[in-house]
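Exercise 7b. Backbone tokens:
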């Protein structure tokens, strides 16, 4: 239980997640969130002006939970191919944890994601930009063939656009392993093997020839 003066946005979002888990998106209300926190619903509205704004914020928080870990991989050191593989496996593992550790909440968030397409779009843009950073490093280090990413240098506008396009292609090609629409197949014992087979194809398409 909190007090109005000590209330924080993070507390509200955590309480909202608890309420969504208990009641589902159709029945969960701002009053339920306020009751969980022991404050008035007006106190919740001081942080989030509407129920829609609260649902959007909790959806964004849920989607962004893996960003920091992925960003550390994208900005880390080491060969680009290793980093890209680690980035993709980290994303797959994060999505699989969400789906299997709390399936009821996962299903609830799938409903909220459908309500907040612009939030999802922003989330995807962030992920693709991280892939692009790794691909750019790979081109600069000559691990990846510039021709295979549609670029000749990493400084002109056209080359940047080609690298972004390549990054989006990698993201979309691996959708089976991070798009929640495919969550039912992630528990298949062969899922990791299929992922690695796809990774070898992607790497073959990017790698510079000796």
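Sequence design result:
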């Amino acid at each position: 239980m909190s007090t109005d003066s000590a209330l924080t946005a993070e507390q509200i979002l955590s309480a909202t997640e608890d309420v969504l888990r208990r009641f589902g998106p159709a029945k969960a209300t701002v009053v339920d969130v306020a009751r969980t926190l022991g404050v008035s619903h007006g106190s919740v509205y001081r942080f989030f002006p509407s129920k829609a704004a609260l649902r959007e914020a909790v959806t964004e928080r849920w989607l962004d939970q893996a960003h920091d870990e992925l960003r550390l991989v994208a900005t880390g050191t080491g060969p680009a191919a290793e980093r890209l593989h680690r980035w993709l496996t980290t994303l797959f593992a994060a999505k699989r944890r969400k789906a299997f550790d709390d399936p009821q909440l996962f299903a609830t968030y799938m409903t909220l994601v459908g309500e907040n397409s612009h939030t999802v779009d922003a989330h995807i843009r962030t992920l693709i930009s991280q892939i692009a950073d790794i691909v750019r490093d790979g081109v600069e280090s000559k691990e990846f063939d510039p021709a295979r990413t549609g670029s000749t240098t990493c400084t002109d506008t056209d080359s940047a656009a080609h690298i972004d396009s390549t990054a989006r292609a990698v993201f979309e090609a691996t959708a089976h392993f991070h798009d929640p629409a495919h969550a039912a197949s992630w528990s298949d014992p062969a899922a990791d093997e299929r992922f690695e087979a796809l990774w070898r194809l992607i790497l073959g398409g990017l790698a510079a020839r000796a």
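Instructor comment: The chain has a mean pLDDT of 90. DSSP finds ten helices and no strands in the chain.
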